[in-house]
Amino acid sequence: MKHLIDILDLSAEEIDELIAVANDIMENPQYYQEKCRYKKLATLFFEPSTRTRLSFEAAMLELGGSVLGFSEAASSSAAKGESVSDTIAVVGGYADIIAMRHPKEGAPLVAAMKSSVPIINAGDGGHNHPTQTLTDLLTIKREKGYFDGLTIGFCGDLKFGRTVHSLIAAMSRYANIRYVLISPEELKVPSYVKADHIKSKHIPYTQTTSIDSVIEELDVLYMTRVQRERFFNEEDYLRLKDSYILTLDKLKNAKEDLCILHPLPRVNEIATAVDDDPRACYFKQARYGKYIRMALILKMLEVC
Ligand code: NCD
């Protein structure tokens, strides 16, 4: 049985297939509407979510399946002290596939070791978020048409931003990629991510604290929120939260065909005036999340 814990659990070819299926679902939704009849998806969210949980649920419903689950640890038996392993052992008897989000890094991996059904990591602490990466890749493919040769800027909280870590892992498999890592000193990409996915592949990258000095070089700009819930103290969060605010003025020197992404939720890091700029792709990106999750569910349940 296959689980999706890390984006690298999927080969680049499997990602291409998922993107092709997601594109086909967008063209021919009626062909897929009964594919998961009588199948059940459990969404076990021990941490808050809007897009990821609802897009998983919408995905399963649009495939004709059903959903069950919980949206906060407080309403599950975790509040009584149940372990993740025990919860998974039980839920495996009620559902055919499980999407799980947890504040602890590695929790979905532990779950996978105990599970009788496929587990999808829907975000584990400040570590990984592979299905957001599938969403990001589908968006980049649709917007730019290719992956090779792109210069990708990541801006904001690159330390705790799990979507950043997973997207770097995924993009590092393509040819002639270049990264521009824009963050405050305290929120730089963790050294393990750099060592495993950038340095080991000899991918050129620059690190800077200033977005203005690099914006004109970028093909993709991946903005992120400062991850308040992962800070040890509120003071640091308040000091760093508004480090970057993307405005129309800052975009003056950017490429005409820049693709601006954000996994959302946005707090303050993109001015709402940017939403109407044709380069703003983040709401489209959120919409695509449902289709790539439909493709993923079909693949993991081995429904053709
Ligand atoms: C992201 C996450 O949960 O890591 N959100 C999402 O799934 N779209 C990004 C974030 O919370 O900042």
Could you name the key traits of this structure?
304 residues; alpha/beta; Rossmann fold; 2 domains; five-stranded parallel beta sheet; four-stranded parallel beta sheet; 10 helices; 36% helix; globular; binds N-carbamoyl-L-aspartate
What does this structure look like?
The chain is an alpha/beta fold and 304 residues long. The protein is built from 10 helices and 9 strands. The strands form 2 sheets. Strands 7-6-5-8-9 form a 5-stranded parallel sheet, with helices on one face. α1 crosses α6. The protein is globular. It starts with 11 loop residues before the first helix and ends with a helix. 44% of the residues are buried. It binds N-carbamoyl-L-aspartate. The site of N-carbamoyl-L-aspartate has 11 residues, from α3 and α7. N-carbamoyl-L-aspartate binds next to α3 and α7.
